[in-house]
Design a protein that fits this description.
Length: 135
């Protein structure tokens, strides 16, 4: 059985583009006021995690390093998609497709904000662990 590499490459490229569009649509839905607050919060958290260069479990740890990417992220996306009203989700998907085609979603400001948030969370966790060890 011969694998057609060009066909496989095109399918993977299409799947990656679809994942990028879905993620950006979730980000847009997270900013839409018609979406319940808990769904918006989860959508923004998932989009931030996906676009963030940091992982909960580092990828260099064998097997466990990819579990968050392979299980937690799709599960979170599925959960958020169920929480968002269908009409809002369709509008966000259309906007995401248009904006990605124009190469709009890249932003160094958003990257700086995400890295800053991860840094602040890390410092808070470090301080919390320090206080727990002192007791």
């Amino acid at each position: 059985m011969r694998i057609d590499r060009a066909r496989l490459y095109n399918r993977l490229k299409q799947q990656a583009k679809k994942l990028k569009q879905e993620t950006y649509a979730l980000y847009l839905a997270g900013r839409d006021r018609r979406v319940p607050w808990y769904a918006r919060l989860l959508a923004v958290a998932i989009a931030a995690y996906l676009f963030s260069p940091l992982d909960l479990i580092p990828d260099f740890i064998p097997i466990l390093g990819y579990l968050d990417d392979l299980i937690l992220v799709p599960l979170g996306i599925w959960l958020v998609l169920k929480m968002i009203p269908p009409t809002v989700l369709n509008e966000c998907r259309q906007r995401a497709t248009l904006e990605i085609d124009r190469d709009k979603p890249s932003s160094s400001i958003v990257a700086a904000i995400i890295i800053s948030l991860w840094f602040i969370c890390g410092v808070l966790i470090f301080v919390w662990i320090g206080r727990m060890l002192k007791k």
